[in-house]
């Protein structure tokens, strides 16, 4: 019995990567890429203005339900210090990150847009 457990453990260690590399969007360097998303670098940009950073990243999701992407980012972004504003928008350190999606030819195109948070008067 111990031999079977030991062999099973070795097998699991061989098929599960220990330090899976975390991917991040190139234009949003601290926003991770969900494993089932494929980033589209040609739709990404990043630049600084006098008001703050403006950035956009896009990614394709071939799953059936885009809700899973929102659930993932709601959990992960909170771990990265973002505060949920509702409606798939988050705020952190004077920046707003908004997530949206659209259906194109049976695949979902997700948009991640960052802009400076409006100043409170």
Structural commentary:
With 121 residues, the protein is of the alpha+beta class. It has a single domain (20-116), classed as Ribosomal Protein S8, Chain: A, domain 1 (2-Layer Sandwich), CATH 3.30.1370. Helix content is 22%, strand content 36%. It has helices spanning 2-15, 67-79, and strands at residues 37-39, 45-48, 53-61, 83-86, 89-92, 95-104, 107-116. Strands 1, 2, 3, 4, 5, 6 and 7 form a 7-stranded antiparallel β-sheet that branches. The radius of gyration is 18 Å and the shape is globular. The relative contact order is 0.17.
List the helices and strands and how they pair.
Layout: H1 2-15, E1 37-39, E2 45-48, E3 53-61, H2 67-79, E4 83-86, E5 89-92, E6 95-104, E7 107-116
Antiparallel strand pairs: 1-3, 2-3, 3-7, 4-5, 5-6, 6-7
Based on helices, strands and strand pairing, what is the structural class?
A: alpha+beta
Q: What's the overall geometry?
A: globular
Any idea how many domains? Answer: 1
Secondary structure tally: strands: 7
For the biggest sheet, the summary is: 7 strands, antiparallel
* Count of alpha/pi helices: 2
Radius of gyration: 18 Å
* Gap from first CA to last CA: 69 Å
Helix share bin: 10-25%
| Uncertain ranges | 5-20
CATH class: Alpha Beta
At CATH's second level, what is the architecture?
A: 2-Layer Sandwich
Look up the CATH topology. Ribosomal Protein S8, Chain: A, domain 1
Mean pLDDT: 86
């Amino acid at each position: 019995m111990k031999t079977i457990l030991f062999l099973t453990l070795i097998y699991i260690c061989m098929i599960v990567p220990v330090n899976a590399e975390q991917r991040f969007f190139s234009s949003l360097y601290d926003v991770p890429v969900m494993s089932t998303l494929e980033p589209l670098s040609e739709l990404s940009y990043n630049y600084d203005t006098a008001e703050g950073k403006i950035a956009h990243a896009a990614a394709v999701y071939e799953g059936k339900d885009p809700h899973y992407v929102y659930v993932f980012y709601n959990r992960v972004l909170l771990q990265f210090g973002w505060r949920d504003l509702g409606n798939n928008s988050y705020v952190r350190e004077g920046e707003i990150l908004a997530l949206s999606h659209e259906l194109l030819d049976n695949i979902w195109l997700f948009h991640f847009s960052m802009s400076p948070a409006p100043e409170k008067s």
